[in-house]
Amino acid sequence: MAAKSVLEQKFEQGLFASRWLMAPMYLGLVVSLGMLMIVFLRELAYYAPQVLTMSSDKAILAVLTLIDMTLAANLLLIVLFSGYENFVSKLDINDGGDRPSWMGTVDFSGLKMKLIASIIAISGIHLLKRFMEIGQQAADATYGEHELKWFVIIHCTFVISGVLMAAMDWMQARSVKKY
């Protein structure tokens, strides 16, 4: 086998180093996580004083809103850590045993499945909130029957996509085991 030319080696080293162009994007995700935390705290501060006077429906909607944001934050963390470790560099940190068990073990396929599962959960919570708001004048003015139909269609599309992704991963894993 012929040795690689100097040009080819430099080219491949440059390609490999280009993965670091992703690092600022992951830093941007950290900033967006901070932004989401501020919105979460603002929502919490808005709903907390009302807790003694709010109806059970409004309490459920408030909790669903907070859960929705928490799931979005979890999604950000999954993308942030798994993406960085899969595509840029391993996180070599002394965490004192505080490292989540999934870190360093989520491959691209696992990352894909965690992403679609999070998106489906977020979509489902959003859809549930819209269903609970049916009959409320402010919500009905914003989300009519037409918009609700599209929410359902989009959610079903996410679910079907998730099932198809899982089926493709399962078939791929089975085909690898045969060889």
How would you characterize the overall build of this protein?
The protein is mostly helical and 179 residues long. The protein has one domain. Helix content is 75%, strand content 0%. The chain has helices at 6-17, 23-47, 56-87, 108-132, 137-142, 145-178. Helix 2 runs antiparallel to helix 3 (56-87), helix 3 packs antiparallel against helix 4 and helix 4 runs antiparallel to helix 6. The radius of gyration is 22 Å and the shape is extended. The two termini are 27 Å apart.
How does the overall form come out from the CA principal axes? extended
Q: State the domain count.
A: 1
Roughly what percent helix? Answer: over 70%
Kindly state the number of beta strands. Answer: 0
Low-confidence stretches: none
Mind describing the biggest β-sheet? none
H-E order: HHHHHH
Number of helices: 6
Mean pLDDT: 85
The N- and C-terminal alpha carbons lie at a distance of 27 Å
Radius of gyration: 22 Å
The class by helix and strand makeup works out as: mainly alpha
Brief overview, please?
With 179 residues, the chain is mostly helical. Helix content is 75%, strand content 0%.
Furnish the topology, listing elements before pairings:
Layout: H1 6-17, H2 23-47, H3 56-87, H4 108-132, H5 137-142, H6 145-178
Keywords:
6 helices, 75% helix, transmembrane helix, UPF0114 protein COL8621_00539, cell membrane, UPF0114, single chain, 179 residues, transmembrane
